[in-house]
Amino acid sequence: MEMKIVDLETGKKKDKIIKTIEWGSKSATKENHEHFMIKEILEQPQAIKQAIMQDDAKLMKMAIGILRSRQVIITACGSSRYAALIGRYLFSKIGGKFCDVVMSSEFGYFADSIDKNTLVIAVSQSGETADVLDGLNQAKEKGAEIYSIVNVVDSTIARMSDEVLYLNCGPEIGVAATKSFLSQMIIFYILAFAMNNKIDYARKELTKVSDLIEKSLPYTMETTKKIAKLTKKQNDFFYIGRGINFAVASEGALKLKELSYIHAEGMPAGELKHGTIALIEDNTPVVAVNPNDNTYPETLSNAEETKSRGAVIIGIGDKESHVYDYFIKIEKVQDIFYPIMCVIPEQLLAYFLAVERGKNPDKPRNLAKSVTVK
Ligand code: M6R
After folding, report:
1. What pLDDT does residue 6 have?
2. Which of 17, 65, 129, 364 is deepest in the core (most CB within 10 A)?
3. What is the helix (H) or strand (E) element at residue 109, kind and residue range?
């Protein structure tokens, strides 16, 4: 088929570069699923395998860029910002590089300290979020270098970046970020391991993680569905975790809020006692994101503090405890990969709670898939 693009006013032919986007029509249908959201959750094992398919030379170039920059700031909104917070831990733990995460709507207020020695990494599913674009424009004006982690090919953020890594997870139709969030995390893993010259190792381990998720999905669906039925009448949930699990807890709370309209807060478990614990009443659900890593004993003890004030504890992890009223077991993986395992039960719990409460998880009220206003 031949196509010609002409200028409407002059009628003259315009030369445009034609790019093929590799997204099939299958990904724009629900297939046999009730909602896009559940379809997209179930696509995640495959999304991991697609996200790790990055060009090694580009990964190394970007990893070196990150390591050499005087300061690195990651900027994003909503779920993408929580993925960025996870990335921040990974850069520090695996790559030995400290960086900061600034939410894009606040980015401009830090613009004074941005200069040509700053590297700004934008994270965005749509690549069109106005707050992110605004921050990047300001950073560009100050001479900063821009990298981005984006899903939509050739989106505005992708085009204005010096380097881009695409998520490769296909279109995400549900308003809630699920497979895009997970894919953003995977990109952070692979970039962090690239800083350590261990790309192949990362690919091998992430493939194993993907297989474990695939295996555990039927159990996780069944368990979260049961817990959703038992907790659907509650109006406040708290999500706690320490270290990297705090960012995972925050994402769980956001998913629940936007889909089921239940009030939810995610916070570092150690912070509860500084105020929020006053809100715990009989039957308040507290979700402890608590895999068996070095944060396990302390998070458990914080969960127990809420239990003694009446909370119902939902533990997510690979080690059971008498503290938990409900337990969502994840598969054992290396500590560093726990966030990937823990986020799936959170997504499913939010999904089933929305469905139990009669809400459409694909179209939460007041929300848009791409937020193009400031
Ligand atoms: O397209 P972006 O990743 O830039 O979007 C950022 C947020 O608007 C987005 O993650 C939002 O928080 C989602 N609804 C979360 O599920």
Report:
1. 81
2. 129
3. none
Phi and psi, residue 265, nearest 5°? -130, 140
Closest CA to ligand 1's atom 8? 78
Q: Where are the domains of the chain?
A: 33-197, 215-356
Structure-block tokens of residue 107:
């980015």
Amino acid in position 275: G
Confidence check: pLDDT of 315 > 90 = yes
* Interval 105-124 mean pLDDT: 94
The pocket around ligand 1, CB under 6 angstroms, is made up of 77-80, 124-126, 129, 132, 175-177, 258, 367, 370-371
Helix (H) or strand (E) holding 317: strand 312-317
CATH assignment of 33-197?
3.40.50.10490
Fold topology of 215-356: Rossmann fold (3.40.50)
Mean pLDDT of 53-75: 97
Q: Which of 129, 152, 179, 351 to mutate to test the pocket of ligand 1 (most atoms within 8 A of CB)?
A: 129
What is the structure's pLDDT at 20?
62
pLDDT category of residue 244 using cuts at 50, 70 and 90? very high
**Is 34 a residue whose pLDDT tops 70?**
yes
DSSP assignment of 318-341 equals SS--TT-SEEEE-----GGGHHHH
| Encoded tokens for 99 | 């960086």
